[in-house]
Design brief:
single chain, about 130 residues, alpha/beta, Rossmann fold, 5-stranded parallel beta sheet, 5 helices, about 15% strand
Length: about 130
């Protein structure tokens, strides 16, 4: 991978076998739960549906069992050279803080302005991958 290049990441209906056979690796596949810890050359990122795994919605403190599971997923993906993203999370500072503090790489949001304000308050800077 050349720094600064565009990475095409296929999501949704993913042609996994077709991408696996592509020796030039022009496209990558957005991984799912079974792909955690799998071939990062094919699945460089894993995206999981928050609501299918957890019932915590960002209100109050994150339950310890949720934090343990998220930490385990972060460790497994990072050990394999993958990034981790959850989609379908609640857009609020409690959720964002918990995910970022646990090492989740990508935060999916609908409320972009609110996230921008939140990140500025944390002193966050851009880290272009």
């Amino acid at each position: 991978m050349v720094p600064g290049c565009i990475r095409v990441l296929l999501s949704g209906e993913r042609p996994i076998e077709l991408a696996r056979q592509d020796s030039s690796r022009l496209v990558f596949i957005d991984g799912r739960l079974p792909d955690v810890g799998a071939d990062a050359g094919l699945f460089p990122s894993v995206s999981l549906d928050w609501a299918s795994l957890f019932s915590w919605n960002g209100e109050g403190s994150m339950p310890p069992e949720v934090a343990r599971t998220v930490s385990r997923l972060v460790d497994q993906t990072h050990s394999a050279g993958q990034t981790l993203r959850f989609w379908g999370t609640t857009d609020n500072p409690t959720m964002w803080s918990a995910l970022l503090d646990l090492g989740v790489d990508l935060v999916s949001v609908d409320e972009v302005e609110a996230l921008t304000t939140f990140l500025a308050g944390r002193g966050a800077t851009s880290t272009r991958p």
